[in-house]
Write a structure and sequence with these properties.
Largest sheet: 2 strands, antiparallel
Structural class: mainly alpha
Distance between the termini: 47 Å
Number of domains: 1
Number of helices: 20
Number of strands: 2
Radius of gyration: 23 Å
Order of helices and strands: HEEHHHHHHHHHHHHHHHHHHH
Helix content: 55-70%
Shape: globular
Length: 484
Amino acid sequence: MKSRWAFPHPATMFLLLMLGVVFLSWICDIYGMAVTLPQTGEEIRVQSLLSPEGIRWWLRNAIKNFTGFSPLGMVVIAMFGLGVAEHSGFIDVCIRRGIGERRSQTKVMLCVITLGLLSNVIGDGGYILLLPIAAMLFQWVGLHPIAGIVAAYVSVACGYSANIILSTVDPLLAHITQEAALAKTGYQGNAASLCNYFFMSASTFVLGAVIYGATRRFLLPALGEYKGRVTMEPYRPLSHKERRAFWVAIVVAGLYVALVLWLTFSPYAILRGVNGGLMHSPFIAGISFILAVGIGITGLAYGFSSGRYRSDKDVIEGLTRPVRLLAVYFVIAFFAAQMFACLEYSHLDVCLAIFGADMLGPFETSPWLALVCLILFTATVNLIMVSATAKWTFMAFIFIPMFARMGVSPDITQCAFRIGDSATNAITPFMFYMPLVLVYMQQYDKRATYGTLLRYTWRYSLFILVAWTLFFTGWYVLGLPMGI
């Protein structure tokens, strides 16, 4: 699988991106680029990373930038859990039991896409946990494992706002929307966590169809047949010992889930926030860790029940299996962490985004066309600033009053923002989990780079952006309610 798009190694790419941020921060600082935060009135100026203070900041924080890289800890813990589950044989048994000898490719693709679209319930856990499993599932049914990684990645990234269940990002965005609406317009209408629920639930099926069609039509033919190392064993029926161990592991997993739910929703509720809510609770903040521990415990239960594990030494061997993969990830993550930290320190992303939003603000046209422009503008800004809450924190205070003057309610404005915020997630090099995605791909193709990934994902982002915008336009023109 030779990419026609020549890109450097992922670690080198992030180093070059960091140097680009450093250079742009120097240029923008020379010309005094500054913007005003609409929510506070505070002036934000681009800070040069080549100034004496910028150089001192980097020398003081280079190590902290790496150790504090937010995905790093979650990736390591999740890899430990996945390592035990795979080494114990639990994942293999789940695949053999769930798919069987028939190995339906359609069933596997729909399963991966659905899980990816629903994964925002557990925050960013889908990036870490689903992608390697998707590669194994695709390889099991005779498809290219990188196709599984790409399909899962696009489903998680581009479908981050669409879900039939309340996700972790819904209350966060709704809280910002409420603040902006009350502060700027005095609006007292619907801006609750479920204000986009109807539209986003329906969008789940639209995005699922688009991703499935693009995978069938473009991705699988482009990748062709996988000729690398086959890691999946031939199918064999489950033995009596494997079936018994499987159900023991399922019971243990059920007890673990029951315990987590009891600690979250019972009167004891130590996993809820200090005010009794879930928005900033330990449950939401630690959902990826909770899930990774659950996977590890389930793998342990299966390993000891099946006889695969007999002592703690066997468990440690399972924990150390992902170390080689993590070694590559650490190298890429180091340069990625420095790049993200430099971008945050320089305020370059915030200044460019607010500058663009201020230019779009006076633009007067019909409400539906203005909403389409908001979607396209957000999709563009998302290429350099991927955090939905960070963007919406200032964009809400610019666009909610602007659209309120056109008679557009805040829930509709928020919905348009979320479409643009999700559609281009799969193609931006500034995605926090991009280093991990590239590491997963390099398991099956050592030459895989960001160019390789972009070659297969740009169509998804384009198709999703167009289809989702058309769907939103039809929904808006018909006057259907966005949510509850």
